[in-house]
Amino acid sequence: MGNYSKALEFYEKTLNIFEKAMPPNHPNLGTSYNNIGRLYDNMGDYMKALEFYGKALKIKEKALPPNHPSLATSYNNIGRVYYNMGTYSKALEFSEKALNIVEKTLPSNHPDLAISYNNIAGVYSNMSNCSKALEFHDKSLNIVEKALPPNHLLLATSYNNIAGVYSDMGNYSKALELYDKSLKIGEKALPPNHPSLAASYNNIGRLYDNMGDYMKALGFYEKALKIFEKVLPSNHSDLAAFYNNIGLMYKHMGNYPKAFEFYEKALNIVEKALHPNHPLLATSYNNIAGVYSDMGNYSKALEFYEKSQKIKEKALPPNDPSLATSNNNIGMVYYNMGNYSKARSFLEKALTIAQKSLPPTHPTIKIMIDNMNHIETM
Question: In residue terms, where are the TPR repeats (predicted)?
């Protein structure tokens, strides 16, 4: 955090000088605003990042021709911030603006074009549109495989991102194969405490988590956390995601005090760092509810599941798989409380959403059908 504070102090001093000495649309002012925006972005203060990236963009839009590559960079920066905030429709809007420019100004095999395709694929992935996500990831991969050496980090990013989509589709063996390819490149090309390595460890951990191998998952999550605790400020939202992951492993293993310890660390961060309808806050409430449910405290479980669902209903499209999970969780709490009519209502909603948003062979659909069948016997 100290490095960020010093950098911010330096950038603000520079900006002060430029604002006094230069006209309001001078390119150097735009550069200063952009630098400060990027710093806030790295610190996880996304509202401040948007403010300064927006100021930089206004100057560029006045000073540059409409298809200038620097405008594409600004649109990508703003799109990425909206992506990190969970505002995916705005993220897609700005990422597509960037793509329009780079498709007109760069050759068809340029690595920057691959980055734009990759950004858009990431947004579609988070909107649960797996087919569109794979379409744009494949465009990106085609470029980087032809244009770059086999150990280039952009290739690792492509493998990693495509693996994430296959994981979302429930194809865990294909996902693991691609995550391993990505990790091998990263371990050769990066220093041992690089955040990208932590992201790879986290992704493989999440995959093992989905496969039910919780000890392996915990090992990878802890590797990731060790790196991020060294390189991120203590209130960064990415740390909350790791605390959530580790808490979940302890929950699966029945160690509820450790699960609460990590979930509360995550909740403390997201309540301070993110806006009140951010999906990561919903995740924190959902996780705490799960521990209460496993401990048999169904009234507390219901309280936190409902908090989580309210956020998801505001922040996500109506057929997002995460809403299916929320309805399923609430349904199972009502089932455990003996309220079978309420349980049936929520489980039916869950299954309807899952069947609309997931491939028919996805493991989640089977679990939800089993839950419905169980209710029908009551």
Answer: 30-63, 72-105, 156-189, 198-231, 240-273, 282-315, 324-357
pLDDT of residue 18: 76
Euclidean distance between CA atoms 73 and 341, whole angstroms: 53
- Domain parsing of the chain, residue ranges: 190-307, 316-378
The residue count of the chain comes to 378
Fold: same for 190-307 and 316-378:
yes
Superfamily designation of domain 190-307: Tetratricopeptide repeat domain (1.25.40.10)
pTM of the predicted protein model: 0.60
Rg of the chain taking only CA atoms, in angstroms: 22
170: left (phi over 0), alpha (psi -120 to 50) or beta: left
Domain 316-378 has CATH 1.25.40: yes
Tell me if residue 261 falls in helix, strand or coil.
helix
* pLDDT tens per residue across span 27-75: 778 788 888 889 888 888 899 999 999 999 999 999 899 999 899 999 9
Tokens of 135: 């379409």
Output the six-digit token pair for 120: 């858009």
